[in-house]
Design brief:
By secondary structure, this protein is an all-beta fold. Helix content is about 0%, strand content about 45%. It is built from no helices and 15 strands. The strands form 4 sheets. A 5-stranded mixed β-sheet has the order 3-11-10-5-8, with no helix packed on it. Strands 4-9-6-7 form a 4-stranded antiparallel β-sheet, with no helix packed on it. A hairpin with a 2-residue loop joins strand 13 and strand 14.
């Protein structure tokens, strides 16, 4: 499960004071912890998720909670929960328990930060879709072969790239504005 430390940092600082968030501000949540899952909740509000590590969504997703696993990123707006006109001055952004086995469901609710949501505009009025990205043309292909070459007795084999010994290899250059597909073949003794 990894170790979950006792101190949660927001923007590199232990939770102190209150974060002020305008409703029309795109927030980027990044889980930089190595072993903690964050299941974020902001009472009276929902998260309008517009993108993740994989890029922007074609259509936003409305979430009551944001689950961020280690290394994950989510881009979202804060909006009043459906059916409410939440204007709470300051609310607690907390991480709720999330059952990932080994007793993790028993973790206590932890304060991440106090949040003051400001502004009257609703991010739900943002465009409902993004401009589609055109498909790439057929990519050029290139093969890279990883191999091993004998070296001096008592030393491990030298790594080769397309038959050339490291570090004396020919750089692979891709022209700007082109799309390439690489086929990597591993002929070494390592997986």
């Amino acid at each position: 499960l990894g170790r979950g430390g006792r101190t949660i940092l927001v923007n590199g600082v232990a939770a102190q004071g209150t974060l002020e968030v305008a409703r029309r501000t795109l927030l980027r949540f990044v889980n930089a912890a190595n072993g903690r899952f964050f299941n974020l909740s902001l009472p009276g509000y929902e998260f309008l998720v517009v993108g993740t590590d994989g890029g922007r969504y074609a259509e936003p997703l409305v979430k009551r909670e944001l689950l961020l696993v280690p290394g994950e990123r989510i881009d979202a707006y804060v909006v009043p929960a459906a059916g409410t006109t939440s204007n709470a001055s300051v609310v607690d952004l907390s991480t709720l328990a999330y059952d990932r086995g080994h007793g993790s469901a028993a973790e206590p609710v932890r304060l991440v930060s106090r949040v003051k949501v400001t502004g009257d505009e609703d991010a739900r009025s943002y465009p409902r879709s993004v401009t589609p990205i055109p498909r790439f043309s057929s990519p050029s292909s290139f093969s890279i072969t990883l191999g091993e070459a004998k070296s001096n007795p008592g030393l491990p084999p030298a790594l080769t790239l397309n038959g050339e010994s490291w570090p004396n290899i020919t750089p692979i250059r891709v022209p700007l504005g082109t799309t390439w597909e690489y086929d990597v073949v591993n002929e070494t003794s390592a997986p």
